[in-house]
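Why do we care about 3D structure at all? Because function follows from shape, and shape follows, mostly, from sequence. That is the central idea of this module. The next example makes it concrete: a single protein chain, its amino acid sequence, and then its structure expressed as tokens.
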Amino acid sequence: MVTRVAINGFGRIGRLTLRAALESGRKDIEFVAINDLGSTEMNALLLQRDTTHGPLAKKVKATATGINAGNGVMKVFSERDPKNLPWDRLGIDVVLECTGIFTKRDMAEKHLKAGAKKVLISAPGTGEDLTVVYGVNDHKLRKSHTVVSNASCTTNCLAPVASVMHKVFNIQQGYMTTIHAYTGDQRILDTLHSDPRRARAAGQSMIPTSTGAAKAVGLVLPELNGKLDGTSIRVPTP
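And the structure:
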């Protein structure tokens, strides 16, 4: 059985998720549609050539109705409100919610109202059925779950390590530091920002900032809830 997937938000996470699926050669997932406010031509170009990962080994072409990356034409929409998307007509099984905006349950559920069967949020959520880190607590997933969070990148790194350490040493309290690539919320050159540290040039600075990733481990491993905290340092790597 093929799972029909739509991507909402074709930024870094949305593009790389599609790229990974295309490169894997999997036949059990079909990417049907993309919703993004950017132009189809630009999104096709960004999918074809990636500064960090190099060119995609498939020809990507923008068409009148969408993007073709050798897997058929994925329809492209530019809709600000997910409830207006044609997920029902397209038979969408899962929406990958990759905007970083619709992370609260009532917002993510707009995809369900549009006809999708399930939503997977590519970020920490609020009010979701379950926060999942694969290999740690994915056994808790149930068919009845309709809105699931895949947590943050740092939580995905920390939870497996914390799980093993807790089993061996019984963690009482912990503090972690994540060395994190700079993000789109930082500045290329010194300029105004609400956070004076993130106002500094990302390519020349090590910038400390807050993170909720350690505390979020408690959503994945309830036995560690309230026991972990941490900080993040953004460094000049893409």
